[in-house]
Design a protein that fits this description.
The complex is a heterodimer. By secondary structure, chain A is an alpha+beta fold. Chain A contains six helices and seven strands, in the order H-E-H-E-H-E-E-E-H-E-E-H-H. Chain A is globular, with a radius of gyration of 16 Å. The termini of chain A are far apart. By secondary structure, chain B is mainly α. The chains are: A alpha+beta, B mainly alpha.
Chain lengths: 155, 124
């Protein structure tokens, strides 16, 4: 198998800094599903933050020579910099409610030498069912099969 | 199919034992060994007859179970069990999930991103 050149030390360093600086965030979407063993394909890592104005987030970005760009017109908030190219900021997740409530249900998954909060598969399915987007509808059968498989393995 | 004396001697050298020591450890007499080594084929007549009638080499239907094969058999057994339990579940989804369950989470994420950045590899 070829060497993985994606999601290397730069991206991991950013997540490590977020955890080290106690920034309140979680990984959601298909990256969260992939971390829970779903055989899915995704182009980015969606991050949901409790507070985008958290000064600790700015510090973490600075550590990896990146910046936060506030929403402008129709453009959502985003990060800029080599280490954060794969990360997208999400500000709302369909049908899941407020961040603080959802965060209580997040699971911790080890990444390298630290752990990150990740939206559980059940809630990823719930949000994708509610979004109504074609690409979400297409991936739903896979996510549901993964959930059944994992539950069967745990029994 | 015959015994390759050269291969056996080479393996003995690699494992730093003599042929005599090997035969002693294996409980095979020198006479029996050299009788076999002189044979044109060490396979039973029935196996050779089957191969001849199929017009193929016996090696095409003789298999050797190995660890990877055992792992895959176990995995496919699990796929069967889960597929029996849930109607309409996709067997490929079960198999891929079970395979990923033995990978660290970071590797699962890398695979998802690598494929996402190279959509052409999914095109048939």
């Amino acid at each position: 198998m070829g060497k993985n050149l994606i999601f290397t030390k730069n991206e991991i360093r950013f997540l490590r800094e977020l955890v080290r600086l106690k920034v309140d965030f979680m990984i959601i979407g298909l990256s969260a599903a992939a971390l829970q063993k779903a055989p899915v394909v995704t182009q980015d890592v969606d991050l949901w933050f409790a507070d985008l104005a958290d000064p600790q987030l700015t510090k973490a970005l600075k550590k990896v020579k990146s910046i936060y760009i506030a929403p402008m017109g129709n453009n959502p908030p985003m990060f800029a910099g080599d280490a954060v190219k794969l990360f997208d900021i999400v500000t709302h997740v369909h049908r899941l409610g407020k961040y603080a409530e959802v965060k209580k249900k997040a699971i911790k998954i080890p990444l390298d030498d630290f752990k990150v909060s990740v939206l559980p598969l059940e809630l990823i399915i719930k949000s994708k069912q509610a979004s109504g987007r074609t690409k979400d509808k297409l991936v739903l059968p896979v996510l549901k099969d993964v959930l059944k498989t994992i539950k069967s393995e745990k029994q | 199919m015959r015994i390759s004396l050269e291969v056996i001697k080479d393996k003995c050298r690699q494992q730093k034992i003599t042929l005599s020591e090997l035969l002693k450890q294996a409980g095979v007499s020198r006479n029996a060994f050299y009788t076999l080594a002189r044979e044109d084929s060490v396979l039973p007549k029935s196996i050779r007859a089957i191969a001849k009638n199929l017009n193929i080499s016996p090696s095409e239907f003789l298999t050797e179970d190995n660890q990877e094969m055992e792992k895959m058999k176990l995995l496919l057994k699990k796929v069967d069990d889960i597929a029996k339990k849930y109607k309409k579940i996709d067997r490929d989804n079960i198999r891929h999930t079970l395979l990923l369950m033995s990978e660290p989470p970071i590797e699962c994420l890398r695979r998802a991103l690598t494929r996402g950045q190279k959509p052409h590899i999914h095109q048939k």
